[in-house]
Design a protein that fits this description.
The protein is mostly helical. The chain has 7 helices and no strands.
């Protein structure tokens, strides 16, 4: 359910684009993201850092799109977000010895002790590479295909690739997980 809630602004962006244009869709996504943040704050009294980053980026890139009447900015936003995540994962691991994937997933996943550090490191690197490639793919689609193809990719393509990546990650992780019967 949280996954669908997180997709809420993208789904509304898609619907608004189908009934309007890229500028209407951008305004709808901005309002939906603000509404989403307000709802999360109302329910939990806490906003995650990733939600704050996403809000700031949609406001900045969306505002530039609307005020300059240039769709390029909203098309660049997913790449900027993906590359920010990729950079954060790489920099925090390399320079601060902080593995954000382990921080986010460590409570739900128990790995075998002997391979724990290397598995978390490889998983962190896999996510960093995945986000980098997603950003590059977004640029490729945005600047080599139609606006409509990019909007479709934004909802279906990027979401589909994320789901496939998570499933593959889960399959890979099961080989390294601690099982109660062991």
């Amino acid at each position: 359910m949280k996954f669908l809630f997180d997709l809420f602004p993208i789904i509304l962006f898609f619907v608004a684009f189908k009934f309007g244009d890229i500028y209407t869709a951008t305004i709808v996504a901005m309002v939906a993201t603000i509404g989403q943040i307000l709802w999360v704050y109302y329910r939990h009294r806490k906003i995650d850092a990733m939600q704050w980053v996403s809000l700031v980026m949609i406001i900045v890139f969306g505002s530039l799109t609307i005020f300059l009447h240039d769709k390029t900015f909203i098309q660049l936003k997913p790449t900027a977000l993906y590359w920010l995540f990729s950079g954060a994962l790489l920099i925090s691991a390399q320079f601060f010895n902080k593995n954000w994937i382990q921080v986010l997933m460590g409570k739900q996943v128990t790995l075998k002790e002997q391979s724990s550090h290397s598995v978390w490191h490889r998983l962190n690197m896999a996510w960093a590479v995945f986000f980098f490639l997603m950003g590059a793919l977004n640029l490729y689609i945005a600047f080599n295909y139609s606006e409509e193809a990019w909007v479709n990719f934004k909802l279906f393509g990027s979401t589909g690739l994320l789901v496939v990546f998570v499933i593959l990650q889960g399959i890979w992780l099961t080989r390294h997980m601690e099982h109660p019967s062991e």
